[in-house]
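Before going further, learn to read the protein records used in this course. The integers have meaning only within a learned vocabulary of local backbone shapes. The record below shows the convention in full.
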Amino acid sequence: MKVIIIEDELPAQAKLAEMLKSIDASIEVVAILESVKDTLTWLKNNPEPELAFVDIQLSDDHSFEIFKQHPIKFPIVFTTAFDKYLLQSFEFNSIDYLLKPITEEKLRRSLDKVKTLQDHFVQGNLQKILNHIQAPQNNRILAKKGNEFVALNMNDIAYFDTQHKVVFATDFSGRRLMVDKTITELEQLVDESNFFRLNRKYLCALAAIEKFKSENGKINVQLQPETKETVYVSKENAPAFRDWIA
């Protein structure tokens, strides 16, 4: 795989290149570039790489300026010390977003993600990969796992729920991440044809409903992934739920 590194700090350049080689000896770093200007010049005069690792804050501007001025067809892993650019990064072919300091474990996961997408989209068809990662920005939501931020695709979320005033998103694989929004705020963001507010604690995707049954006017809803508590739709909301799921 031919890779470029866009980074203006010499120690960070060297460390990233060394880790890439350590993880996968077939990776070839074809260029290390330090500024927006240098990168634009290089891109105009060289074949496009298969992947780029890009620091956001460069010496002469944000690296986003590169991709505003030069349309690209290769995926990007952004590397930065700041989490505030995460959602903006998805406008520019971002396949991952690594917060510094970058560890070998984080880098390996990022490369695994690239390989998984290549395998999924038939032998590395980059255009299909880019179509996938350039989904509309409002189809993603920012979640947190430990000290890392994760951009979740709404289509992967089974349900949102509130526990002790903290909101969580659970995806269909069972992964559970914190979300810095209220259930009411999330209700305004989701596609109402795909999500329903079951009660004050749960906002659920249609595909997460395994089965349901009436109990004394309320509706007992069984979700998948399974919840630790019994989830009910209230008597007041039961008619709207039946209309929505029909």
